[in-house]
Amino acid sequence: MQYNENPLFTDITSRDCLEMLNCFHSEEKLFSSGEMIHHFSSQKPVMGILLSGTASVLRYEFNGSRTILEKLETNSVFGEILAFHSEEYEDIHLKCDTECRVLMIDYESLMKPCTNACACHIRLIQNVTWLISQKTMSLSQRVEVLSKRTIREKLYCYFMQESLRQKSSSFHIPFTMSDLADYLSIDRSAMMRELKKMKEDGILSSEKRMVRLLPEHTAGV
């Protein structure tokens, strides 16, 4: 993989990427499906790039229930500075949905001022700032979904966000039905009943993970 294809290294040459990664004590690791990649309460903060595979940021409550805070796909960037959590949460970690190849970077080394004040390191810090702003926007969208009162409103809001993000009235959702219920913090059986009603009411059609919002409900898409 060309590391400069990742948003963390935007406008940084491949050569500069490799030199900086050596300075940042970076390490590529391979994880099996179901394996934990990173625990966000670890004492040593990291920044990571998901080079291949998919993973989920999960929070488990004392009663054993789980919430999917975020779904990460190939080329996603993760780390404490980008995470949607605080110390009050019980147990938050990044877990593989599939086999994953990950580049781990020591965060303190990455953010440490460069003794040479090189342009590529300055650009890297600007990219980190941009990623934080994108995560903030993503968090705002998630809050919008969770703030809806009914299951139908939550589903419709999430589907509209995905439709706009993928610029199509037909789009692929990155979740199984069980995972979607955990992401929206709703009961799976109740969600499936509501999805059936939404189909009957002509709001959408779906097949497996493909969803299509019907024309009268997609103005502006």
UniProtKB/TrEMBL annotation:
> Pfam families in the record, alphabetically?
cNMP_binding, HTH_Crp_2
- Does the record bear DNA damage in its keywords? no
- InterPro entries from the UniProt entry: cNMP-bd_dom, cNMP-bd_dom_sf, HTH_CRP, RmlC-like_jellyroll, WH_DNA-bd_sf
- Which SUPFAM superfamilies does the record associate with it? cAMP-binding domain-like, Winged helix' DNA-binding domain
Which keywords are on file for this protein?
Answer: DNA-binding, Transcription, Transcription regulation
Q: Which Gene3D superfamilies match?
A: Jelly Rolls
Limits of the Cyclic nucleotide-binding domain = 8-112
Does the keyword ATP-binding feature in the UniProt annotation? no
Question: In terms of domain of life, where is this protein from?
Answer: Bacteria
* Protein name (record): Crp/Fnr family transcriptional regulator
